[in-house]
C-alpha cells in the first residue's frame, strides 16, 4: 500500500527554529572531524519496502530541543546531533536519504500513526505503554537526571529533594511519569510544570519559575557543561533514574521496514561506525552492544 508523506512547510520549520533559539540551550555545532564513511549495502537496500525504494527517502520526525541528541544547528534550520548523524549513516547504508523534520515531541507517535512521517527518532524512551502505538528499534541507553540553577541554591541532591518544589519537564516525556512515582514518597506535593520543549523547561529554571528540570542524562550533561550555558545550570549528580532504551519508532504494520532498520543498525554497531558517531558527540557511555526491538525496561 502506498503511504502518504506530508513534509512540513519550510515556514513552519523556521518558526519552530526561531522559537527554540530563544530558549534555554545554545545551538551546538557539529563536531569538526569527518563522520565515518559508509557504503551502500545492496542487499539491505533491496530488502526495503518497495514504496521506500521508489521514494528514495525516509522521513524522520524529531523534536530538535534535546542536544546532543538532536537540536537546531547554528543556522537555525539544520537539525544536528548524534541522532541525525546516526540517521545519515543508516541512510548511506540503505541507499536512501534520511530526512529529519521538526515536530512536537508530545504528538510524535500520533504523527507516525497518521502517516505524516515514516519514522520517529527523537530520544523517545521505549516503554510498554508506547509499544501499544509503535514498534521500537532500540539504539541508545539513558536515564533521567536533575538540573538545577548554578550553585544549587536550594540544596537539591536527589529525587527526594524535589518534594515541595516546582519541577519543569517536557510534556509527553518519561520524566512526567517518573515525577508521579516520586510523588508517592513525598509529604509535600511536587509542582510539575509540563512545557512544549526541553528548551522551554530550561527557560523556566533560568528565569526562576521552576526550581529544577528533570531531563535525560545526555541533555542534562550538555547544558551543564557547554561553555555557553554552564554558568546558568548545574547537574545535581551523575545518577540516572530509571534508565531505559531509546528507540526508533516504526508503525506496527511496517514490520519489513522495522526489520531492515534493525539489521542495518546492528551492522553499524558491528562495524564500529555507531560507536565512533556516539563518541564524536561525547555520548559513548550510552552505547548498546546489541540492537533490540521493543526492549522496554520495567520502571521502579
From TrEMBL:
Domain Solute-binding protein family 3/N-terminal: 57-285
Gene3D superfamilies noted in UniProt: Periplasmic binding protein-like II
InterPro entries on file: Solute-binding_3/MltF_N, TAT_signal
Keyword set includes Signal: yes
Record keyword RNA-binding present: no
Entry-linked SMART domains: PBPb
Keywords: Signal
Signal peptide per UniProt: 1-26
The name this protein goes by in its record: Polar amino acid transport system substrate-binding protein
Organism: Geodermatophilus aquaeductus
Lineage of the organism: Bacteria, Bacillati, Actinomycetota, Actinomycetes, Geodermatophilales
Amino acid at each position: 500500500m502506498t503511504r502518504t508523506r506530508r513534509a512540513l512547510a519550510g515556514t513552519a520549520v523556521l518558526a519552530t527554529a526561531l522559537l527554540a533559539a530563544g530558549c534555554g540551550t545554545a545551538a551546538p555545532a557539529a563536531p569538526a572531524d569527518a563522520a565515518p564513511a559508509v557504503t551502500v549495502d545492496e542487499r539491505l537496500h533491496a530488502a526495503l519496502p518497495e514504496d521506500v525504494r521508489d521514494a528514495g527517502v525516509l522521513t524522520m520526525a524529531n523534536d530538535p530541543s534535546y542536544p546532543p541528541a538532536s537540536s537546531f544547528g547554528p543556522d537555525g534550520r539544520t537539525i544536528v546531533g548524534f541522532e541525525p548523524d546516526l540517521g545519515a549513516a543508516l541512510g548511506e547504508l540503505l541507499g536512501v536519504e534520511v530526512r529529519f523534520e521538526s515536530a512536537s515531541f508530545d504528538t510524535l507517535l500520533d504523527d507516525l500513526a497518521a502517516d505524516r512521517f515514516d519514522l520517529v527518532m527523537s530520544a523517545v524512551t521505549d516503554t510498554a505503554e508506547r509499544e501499544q502505538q509503535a514498534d521500537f528499534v532500540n539504539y541508545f541507553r539513558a536515564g533521567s537526571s536533575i538540573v538545577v540553577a548554578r550553585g544549587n541554591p536550594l540544596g537539591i541532591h536527589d529525587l527526594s529533594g524535589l518534594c515541595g518544589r516546582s519541577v519543569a519537564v517536557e510534556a509527553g516525556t518519561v520524566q512526567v511519569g517518573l515525577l508521579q512515582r516520586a510523588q508517592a514518597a513525598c509529604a509535600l506535593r511536587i509542582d510539575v510544570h509540563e512545557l512544549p520543549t526541553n528548551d522551554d523547561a530550561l527557560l523556566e529554571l533560568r528565569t526562576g519559575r521552576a526550581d529544577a528540570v528533570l531531563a535525560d542524562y545526555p541533555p542534562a550533561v550538555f547544558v551543564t557543561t557547554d561553555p555557553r550555558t554552564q554558568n546558568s545550570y548545574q547537574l545535581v549528580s551523575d545518577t540516572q533514574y530509571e534508565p531505559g532504551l531509546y528507540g526508533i519508532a516504526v508503525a506496527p504494520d511496517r514490520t519489513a521496514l522495522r526489520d531492515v532498520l534493525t539489521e542495518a543498525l546492528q551492522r553499524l554497531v558491528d562495524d564500529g561506525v555507531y560507536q565512533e558517531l556516539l563518541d564524536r558527540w561525547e555520548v559513548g557511555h550510552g552505547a548498546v552492544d546489541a540492537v533490540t526491538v521493543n526492549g522496554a525496561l520495567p520502571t521502579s
